[in-house]
Design goal:
Number of helices: 17
CATH topology of the largest domain: Aspartate Aminotransferase, domain 2
Distance between the termini: 58 Å
Shape: globular
Bound molecules: 3-[O-phosphonopyridoxyl]--amino-benzoic acid
């Protein structure tokens, strides 16, 4: 058997990858024709690929490497934990020190009385957990008919069949179908859907769709509402300021559980520890993952408030994963939280880095192709548009121009993603001002190149 290493030629690694590895959210044939990019190492905010390119990762991996790459302390903690107790489960009335310590720390960090942690291996699993939690909660309270969970179109809550049904990505629904009793309302995306309404009125209208849905479905049927404080995978959609207070009012009025999916927003991304603090939301349940371990080990959780946990504790909760509370992941997460806190990384991200990034990122708004530059903390996005004065969409299929722009970013050693024709960033929280300057300079160059390409391809046309 040949040993496969970083030292093999790129084409050979690409050939082997194409032969045996199926990539997520990827057209396999297209990738085989092109060859996957191979990342070999990373440090801080910089990735190195197999061709020796140094790439600024303005996406923190998949919105998760909040601490930046290459922190040895996390590797050391993982090695120590693997030697001492590499695995034991938390079923059968058993526990271990890493999971005890992490749970206590999360209860301190999470706002209000969110004090009780159920672990999973991924955000998708944690949202599956939430479905069972809220339905069990209402059944235990003598209201088993309260099973409907309301979510939003263009929400992302994960990729398992249940989590993707909960989410609002139609492409995912088309490939695996839905599960019962999930209902979707519209998203608060003013730029794309607000038409002539003011952002404030539009925010209220979209929030009030929740009330309408509760009344139509029947108050006695609705169990919970789930939402990301700021939609991430949907394109970093920051809702109008009127949106969340109205959602909170409606959840309180009808006593439905509010689940904040903090998988992206958590752990400093929006400038506070949790997105619900930045946006002024009081959830009953919070989903966390990604930044919990800065992606160094897979771990996620649902954090329940005192009341929900007390009700669930009254029955045998028939739920759990082999890796619920995995000791190595828990130890790594705890060390990640220690560093984020003790080095003041979350605090600095909010008070220093975010204002500088905002100023620089917003400066891209003078580019002819850029409209609606929006940023909160260290997650931001802008629309690509052929006419910003009318918020026009391109005549080409959504994502055509976005893809061209992303490719120009990659060619300029910048990882910036596109979601349709929106470009998004979510850099590691440790990004410095100099690195922000590099990010913006590369983005501007990529935009200039994409603009020329779009015009040359005859795509500089607004949809009717
Ligand atoms: N909730 C939210 C809000 C997420 O962003 C999940 C749940 C699911 O987490 P797991 O760990 O099961 O992936 C996510 C994940 C993208 C992209 O392309 C976004 C995510 C995952 C993969 C790709 O933006 N978010």
């Amino acid at each position: 058997m040949t040993q496969i290493t970083n030292h093999m030629p790129t084409e050979e690694l690409q050939r082997l990858d194409a032969a045996h590895h199926i990539h997520p959210f990827t057209n396999g044939d297209e990738l085989t024709a092109k060859g996957a990019r191979i990342i070999t190492r990373a440090k801080g905010v910089t990735l190195t690929d197999s061709e020796g390119n140094e790439i600024l990762d303005a996406m923190a991996g998949l919105w998760c490497v909040n601490l930046g790459y290459g922190r040895e302390e996390l590797a050391e903690v993982a090695a120590r934990q693997m030697k001492e107790l590499p695995y034991y489960n938390t079923f059968f009335q058993t526990t271990h020190v890493p999971v005890i310590a992490l749970s206590e720390r999360l209860a301190q960090l999470a706002p209000g009385d969110l004090n009780h942690v159920f672990y999973a291996g991924s955000g998708s699993e944690a949202n599956d957990t939430n479905i069972r939690v809220v339905r069990t909660y209402w059944a235990e309270k003598g209201k088993p008919e309260k099973t409907v969970i309301i979510s939003r179109h263009n929400a992302y809550h994960g990729s398992t069949v249940a989590a993707s049904a909960l989410g609002g990505m139609s492409g995912m629904h088309a490939q695996s179908g839905m599960i019962p009793d999930i209902h979707h309302i519209d998203q608060p995306n003013w730029w794309a859907e607000g038409e002539s309404a003011s952002p404030e009125d539009f925010g209220l209208e979209r929030a009030q769709q929740l009330e309408k849905a509760i009344l139509e479905l029947g108050e006695d049927r609705v169990a919970a509402f789930i939402a990301e404080p700021v939609q991430g995978a949907g394109g970093v959609i920051i809702p109008p300021e009127t949106y969340w207070p109205e959602i909170q009012r409606i959840c309180d009025k009808y006593e439905i559980l509010l689940i904040a999916d903090e998988v992206i927003c958590g752990f400093g991304r929006t400038g506070s520890w949790f997105g619900c603090q930045t946006l002024g939301i009081k959830p009953d349940i919070m989903t966390i993952a990604k930044g919990l371990s800065s992606g160094y080990a897979p771990i996620a959780a649902s954090i329940l408030n005192d009341e929900v946990a007390a009700v669930i504790s009254g029955c045998e909760f028939n739920h759990g994963y082999t890796y619920s509370g995995h000791p190595v992941s828990a130890a790594v997460a705890l060390e990640n939280l220690r560093i984020l806190d003790e080095e003041g990384i979350v605090e600095r991200a909010g008070s220093e880095t975010a204002p500088y990034l905002k100023e620089q990122f917003e400066s891209l708004g003078d580019h002819p192709m850029v409209g609606d530059v929006r940023i909160v903390g260290l997650m931001g996005s802008f629309a690509l548009t052929p006419d910003k004065s009318t918020r026009a969409k391109f005549a080409s299929e959504a994502g055509t121009v976005g893809f061209m722009c992303r490719e120009r970013c990659f060619a300029n050693n910048l990882i910036m993603r596109h979601v349709g024709d929106r470009m998004v960033i979510s850099p590691p929280l440790i990004i410095t001002k100099d690195e922000i300057d590099t990010l913006i300079a590369r983005a501007r160059k990529a935009l200039d190149e994409a603009y020329e390409e779009v015009k040359a391809a005859g795509l500089w046309k607004a949809a009717n």
